[in-house]
Amino acid sequence: MREEIIVSGRNNPLIDPQLHVWHWEIPTYLFLGGLAAGLMFFAALYYLRGKENDYRTAVKLAPMIAPIALALGLVALFLDLHHKLYFWRLYTTIRLESPMSWGAWTLMVVTPVSIIWSALHIKELFPNWDWKFDFAKELIDFFQKKKKVLAWIMLISSAILGIYTGILFSAFNARPLWNTSIMGPLFLASGLSAGAAVVIWMSKDHAERKRFAQLDLMIIGIELFLIIHMFMGFLASTQVQIDAVNLFLGGPYTAQFWGFVVILGMIVPAILEGLELKGYKIPVAIPVVLVLFGSIMLRFIISNAGQASRWLY
Amino acid sequence: MRYAMAIDTKKCVGCSDCVVACQTENDVPIGHCRDWVVEVMDGTYPELEMELRSERCNHCENSPCVRCCPTGASHYSDGGIVLVTKNECIGCSACITSCPYDARYVHPDGYVDKCTFCLHRVKKGMQPACVAVCPTKCMYFGDLDDPRSEVSEVLKKRKYKTLIPEAGTKPQLYFLI
Question: Taxonomically, which superkingdom (chain B) (predicted)?
Fold first, then answer.
């Protein structure tokens, strides 16, 4: 039998025997960023459609989680850097070819927008809230008048943020499992699904919960379609891509991917949400927690499996 | 000017002198390496072939590491040599994941490090440490744009290959076969 045995004298930490430079920080950030993107996207969308009072949780309350998620995500990103004291270099350069540079600048837009949006609605959550300083009140008044512009910026920038969480991976040609354009839309859909799930969880309004359950069902359908599309694309591609996708089709990540992401994170919550829409009584926390779990697992598994996939030589 | 290196896999004996020379010359931290030797055993018994390759950063003409670097720390220097400016590197590891050759590592001081083709020596008219020390003289270094350079001459005469050409990175490390 023809065999090839490769023995490498290289033994660099985090690189050998298998690449593992990105640990929990990156997938955690990608989940929190995706969740924030989802929350902000729906808030902007329904505000612009004039449904501010129909979907109060989605437009006013749920987006308050976005700045918290973004801040925690940025802490995770910071922790991931090995040369932490130089992090500000991200903001002294604009590198159009680097997805990470795009991400840094997108966050520069998204984070303040999420804070302003929350500030505009904070009085609804805490009626006794007092801004204390006049300039803060003036700023709030200013943004209140420009709310439509702010909503448009939020809609577009949150979509870019959601797509970026996937493009960060897909830009790396050296990791065949990541190198597919499906990653952007898949991660955006996963972020939107997580955002919709949080709205369902927080909302007390039956009509709003019903609308977001319908939305979530639709997004889960899109996610499943994108996953099938991704597998078909890989299997019709070169040997390195076939080997990469085999990590999920009989390889070491098979049980995790299909069990945690597809079955527990998508199919089971979709069935539960479907039953709920048909009038069955199902505790809302169950599908919501499953969707969030699936969304986190998707990031972790794609991050780890991607680093395990490589070119042959 | 386009610096390149050719390594004769027929002459290499896998002694790892190049690895030690590099570690000494460039103060490579203990437990890390900028270059390394790979042994490939291929074939069906008893007809087996072994290839020895001294590998390092391929100083690709189309470097994904340079493209994906968010701060510009990874850049092309003189003659297309790919370098990392340590005070601009934030250690995000994007360049590490983008390199199909896994030629980079995180230096214990936090920045990303890799082979520089010993540019500091090349600027003085010397050869990279690995080339200078090789006991079998199996490495050739020079300017590909100069038809009379050692590396151009040897690539004209011999058959050669590059690693993972299908990745489209246009590597400048040639292996004579």
Answer: Bacteria
